Every structure is written in C-alpha cells, then in structure tokens.
Amino acid sequence: MNIQVTEQAGAQPTEISQADAKPELTIRLCGPRGFCAGVDRAIQIVVLALKQYGAPVYVRHEIVHNRYVVEGLEAKGAIFVEELNEIPAEHRQQPVVFSAHGVPKSVPEDAQSRNLFYLDATCPLVSKVHKQAMRHQRLGRHVILIGHAGHPEVIGTMGQLPEGTVSLVETIADADVYTPIDPDNLGYVTQTTLSVDDTAGVIARLQERFPNLTAPSADSICYATTNRQEAVKQAAEGCDLFITVGAPNSSNSKRLVEVALRAGAKHSILVQRASELNWDEIGDIRTLGISAGASAPEVIVDEIIEAFRARFDAKVELAITTEETENFLVNRELRDVPLTQEDMAWVNGVRPLSV
C-alpha cells in the first residue's frame, strides 16, 4: 500500500491553550473509492439526457443506490419511477433511463410496447454478466446466480433467462442444500458487487459438490468492487473507527463495512451524510479510516473529512492500492452533447482533496 501524507492547509496559530487544542487524528483515506466507471456513466447519461431533451427525464428505479445522487438529479428535472406505467401519457415522448443495475428483458420490451424512448444505463460489466448467463443457458447448462435476493441487479440478471433455467444461491448454507436436476450440467455467474472473500467460499463449496460446474469466461465481480475491498483491507487494520460513505441499500457499500471489520478496524459504520455522525459514540479516536462505495459521491467524502477537521487536528494519509483508468462511453444518442466539469461538480466536488 502506498501511503502519502497530506498536511492540512493553512497557517497554524503560534499559541494554543491546552483547553482549546484539538485532539490529533490521522485519517487514512482509501483509494480507489467512490464512483466506479459504471456509476459515473449512469449519472452522466441522466445529466446529458436532461441537457439534450429537457425536463422531465424519467428514470426507472434509483439510477444508483444513493439518495444524494437521486435528490440531486430530481432537482435538475429527473423523475424517478419504479414501473413504466407510472409515466403519464403526455410525457411518453420524453426519455426514460434504465438504472445502472440492469433490468429484465421484459422491461425494454414493455417500453417498446408503450412507444417509449429509452436509454439503457446498465453498467457494461453487469451487461457482461447477462451475456455470461445467457451463454451458459444457450449451451444447455442450468445457471446458478450467486447474489442477494431482491437486489435489482439480481432481478435483472435472472430476468435475462427463461423461467426455470436459473437458481439463486446466496450463502455457503444455500450451496450445501442446493439440489439441481442435472448436477453435471451447471454454470455459475455472480452479482458484480459481492464480497470477494464470501463469494470465493460459496464458489468453492459449489465446486466441491459439483466438480463439473462451469465458471464464467471472466470473473463476474467487477474491478471496482475488488479494488475498493482491497484498499479497505490494507487501510483498516488499527483504525479506531472506519467509515464507509454509502447508502443502506447499496450492496457494495455494505460489503466494505464488513471488510473493514474483518481487516482489523475496531468499529465500522456506514454513513450517508456528515449530519448522521454521532459524535458521542465516536468519542476519543486517534486513527480513522474512510472509504466510499461505488455509488457514493466524492463531495460527501469531502463533507465528512471537513466535519472531522472541525473537531480534530486532522492529518490525511492517502492509502492508495491501485489507480483506476476505466471509462465507459455513454449511449450513442448522447455522445455529441457536451459534458462540463461544472455539470458534475455537485457530485465530484470542486476541491482536489481526492485521490
């Protein structure tokens, strides 16, 4: 892990009374953290659609699992719905965007039957899992999807396949009792946002029980999930508190909370905004770790760091494990629409605090 020490900006007063002195705090700021390329692309699609077509732009389900992002897009003119029948007839010429988590095949079919213009913001790595699952099924294998029941990504992946051709396995306990019709003709894929370690255990148990189980052609867990978990593993040991910025319905953010505890953080919490911080519970800490889920904006990371700087004499260490260069193109219909730094400042922030 590469640790870079960043001193606080600003001159220090020459004399500080002992009563007024802030306690010292080291903040280990993980990198990579926050938006992945798929989330960045999905948000850009909504922003660009608003610029190109004007408000309202409808979005089926939360574009990503983060209330700050959703509310920010609502303020710009996006309207979030759970089903396409919620779009009023007079707005059917306005675009509807499908979320980054992906949708069942039935959703674009429904949109076409309603003569809706839709933009698919499904993460390309989720689309890759869809293709892997369909390939298994096309080759006659029953598909095992390792994932969390009810998660939109899982619903979308299962919805790519005919009924009865895919089974959901969540845990090692599920793998122990899973009873397929043809145990020699199975293939698996995984949800992209799972814990790498937990998933490895489930896969190992399935392979132990079904030696002919066919793996996908490439790892289903996305690069960003893996990178963020590895960064947390490296930074969390010895932290009095580890904070993951993210939403309670964000699968990858919740996994980071668990990873931090396993890696040696004394306490690990999930926080959406600085206003949620309970300072009485935080108490007297000396080392704080911070990361952010793949759907959490950098501006909230900055907000939380500033909240600690208001109460502590804070020194930030950038705990970097790798650099990410991935970038996914937006839909062809939007590629000629200019996107400026100002268009995205509400989520990316304007100060270079970040890795």
Task: Please supply descriptive tags for the structure shown above.
355 residues; alpha/beta; Cobalt-precorrin-4 Transmethylase, domain 1; Rossmann fold; 3 domains; 6-stranded mixed sheet; 4-stranded parallel sheet
Describe the model.
The protein is an alpha/beta fold and 355 residues long. It has three domains: 2-8 and 22-36 and 223-337, 4-hydroxy-3-methylbut-2-enyl diphosphate reductase, catalytic domain (Cobalt-precorrin-4 Transmethylase, domain 1); 37-120, Rossmann fold; 124-209, Cobalt-precorrin-4 Transmethylase, domain 1 (3-Layer(aba) Sandwich), CATH 3.40.1010.20. 36% of the residues lie in helices and 18% in strands. The protein is built from twelve helices and 13 strands. It has helices at residues 37-53, 67-76, 106-113, 124-138, 152-158, 172-177, 196-209, 223-236, 251-262, 279-282, 298-309, 341-348; strands spanning 2-6, 24-31, 57-60, 78-81, 96-98, 118-120, 142-146, 166-169, 186-190, 241-245, 268-271, 287-292, 313-320. The strands form three sheets. Strands 1-13-2-12-10-11 form a six-stranded mixed beta sheet, with helices on both faces. Strands 4-3-5-6 form a four-stranded parallel beta sheet. A three-stranded parallel beta sheet has the order 8-7-9, sandwiched between helices. The longest helix is centred in the N-terminal third of the chain and has 17 residues, at 37-53. The protein starts with a strand and ends in a 7-residue tail after the last helix. The model is unreliable at 5-17 and 351-355 (pLDDT under 50).
